[in-house]
Amino acid sequence: MLDRIDHIAIAVEDLDAALAMYQSLFELEAAHREYIKDFDVDIATFTIGNTEIELLEGRSQDSPIRKFVRKSGPGLHHIAFAVDDIRKVLARLKAEGVRLIDETPRRGKGNSLVAFVHPASTQNVLYELVQMDSSI
What's the whole-model pTM score? Predict the structure, then answer.
């Protein structure tokens, strides 16, 4: 069902300051930057092996990431798993009674479809499913 860990997402207050810290401490340069309208978030990613670290900064005060940072502070936000068929995985999870934030996929970074599994069903960890497909 799951192919690999696609990325680990970290919510930050200031994306540029976080990028500078990662560059200084770990000599990492951002491989990708993007604004994702559906989530009102600016992202930057670092590639380490076949996994990415994704930094997230909410653009507006109403952004879910900005709200998360206000409530919990900066830090680990979610872990994302790569899947081949996101709709099939969502249907299976729903049939098993798993609580989903997204019952249908939304657009994510690049040319991807994403959906989140509610932490109430996963021992309080937010998971994202990611399907990369240029034909979507």
Answer: 0.91
